[in-house]
C-alpha cells in the first residue's frame, strides 16, 4: 500500500513541478533575450552613480542566468524523482531524497535569517533608496527627451520614480521630504505655471485615467489636465499623496501575508511529503532486492 501510494504521489508531484520548471526556464530565457525596460535603464547608468552601484550589487544582468540554472536543476531533480519512482531505481531516489532534504534545510535557514535580520534589511533598503531619491530625482519638466539608449542616471531614476509614484499613489521612500529637502530636485528650483513647485508633480493626486496614462506612457506634456478638479498641487502642499512608497509596498505585503505564509507552508509541506515518499520507496525496493 505504502509503495503504490508513494509511487503515485511522487510521479504526480514531480510531473507538476517539471511543468513549472519548464515554465520558469522559458521565463528565464525570455528575460535573457529581452531584458526589461527598468533593468536596461539601470544598467545604462554612469559608473559613478548610485543607481549603477545598486544595479551592480543586485547583479541584475546575471538574474536571467541564475533563473535558467535553477530551473534546469529543478527540472533534472524532478525527472530523477519521477523516473526513480516509475523505474524503481534506488540510486535516483536516493539522489532525489538527499537533494530535497538539503533544499528543505536551506529554505528553513533562509526563512530564519530573513526573520532575524528583517529590520536591518529594511533599514538598509530605506537608506539606499532615500539617498537615490535625494541625489538623482529631477523635476519632470527638466528631464531630457526619451531615447532608446538613454544614459543620464538622473533622468533614468526620475522616470522610474515618477512611474512608481503614479502607479502606487505614493511619494518618496518614506515621505515627500525625501525628494524636496536638501536634494537635487529642490536645488533645481522647479516651476509649474511660473510658480515654484513645492511637491513633485508625480506625487499630486490625479484622475484615474490620468494616473493610468502617465504610468504607461511617461508623457508629462499635458500633466495639468490630469490633476483632480481644484487641485493646488504641485505649487502648494495640498492634494498630494503623503504616504511613502516603501510603507505602501509593506502595507501591500502585509495585506497578502496570510496567503504568502499559506503558500510557503504548503510548499515546505510538499517537500516533506516527497522526502517521506522517496524514503518509503527506497526502503521497499531495497527490501525487495534483498529477498
Automatic annotation (TrEMBL):
It is found in: Membrane. It holds the Pfam family Tetraspanin. It is a multi-pass membrane protein. Keywords: Membrane, Transmembrane, Transmembrane helix. One of its GO terms (cellular component) is plasma membrane. Its main location: membrane. Belongs to the tetraspanin (TM4SF) family. This is Tetraspanin. It comes from Macrostomum lignano.
Amino acid at each position: 500500500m505504502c509503495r503504490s501510494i508513494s509511487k503515485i504521489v511522487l510521479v504526480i508531484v514531480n510531473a507538476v513541478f517539471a511543468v513549472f520548471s519548464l515554465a520558469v526556464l522559458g521565463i528565464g530565457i525570455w528575460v535573457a533575450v529581452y531584458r526589461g525596460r527598468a533593468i536596461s535603464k539601470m544598467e545604462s547608468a554612469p559608473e559613478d552613480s548610485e543607481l549603477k552601484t545598486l544595479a551592480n550589487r543586485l547583479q541584475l544582468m546575471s538574474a536571467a542566468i541564475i533563473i535558467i540554472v535553477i530551473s534546469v536543476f529543478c527540472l533534472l531533480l524532478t525527472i530523477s524523482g519521477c523516473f526513480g519512482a516509475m523505474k524503481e531505481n534506488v540510486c535516483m531516489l536516493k539522489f532525489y531524497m538527499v537533494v530535497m532534504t538539503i533544499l528543505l534545510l536551506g529554505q528553513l535557514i533562509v526563512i530564519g535569517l530573513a526573520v532575524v535580520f528583517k529590520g536591518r534589511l529594511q533599514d538598509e533598503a530605506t537608506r539606499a533608496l532615500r539617498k537615490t531619491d535625494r541625489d538623482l530625482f529631477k523635476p519632470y519638466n527638466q528631464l531630457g527627451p526619451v531615447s532608446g539608449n538613454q544614459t543620464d542616471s538622473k533622468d533614468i531614476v526620475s522616470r522610474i520614480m515618477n512611474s512608481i509614484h503614479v502607479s502606487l499613489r505614493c511619494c518618496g521612500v518614506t515621505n515627500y521630504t525625501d525628494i524636496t529637502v536638501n536634494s537635487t530636485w529642490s536645488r533645481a528650483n522647479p516651476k509649474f505655471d511660473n510658480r515654484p513647485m513645492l511637491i513633485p508633480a508625480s506625487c499630486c493626486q490625479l484622475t484615474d485615467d490620468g494616473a493610468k496614462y502617465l504610468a504607461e506612457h511617461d508623457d508629462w506634456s499635458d500633466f495639468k489636465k490630469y490633476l483632480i478638479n481644484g487641485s493646488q498641487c504641485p505649487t502648494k502642499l495640498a492634494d498630494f499623496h503623503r504616504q511613502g512608497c516603501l510603507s505602501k509596498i509593506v502595507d501591500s505585503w502585509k495585506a497578502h501575508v496570510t496567503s504568502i505564509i499559506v503558500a510557503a507552508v504548503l510548499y515546505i509541506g510538499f517537500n516533506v511529503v516527497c522526502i517521506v515518499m522517496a524514503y518509503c520507496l527506497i526502503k521497499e525496493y531495497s527490501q525487495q532486492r534483498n529477498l
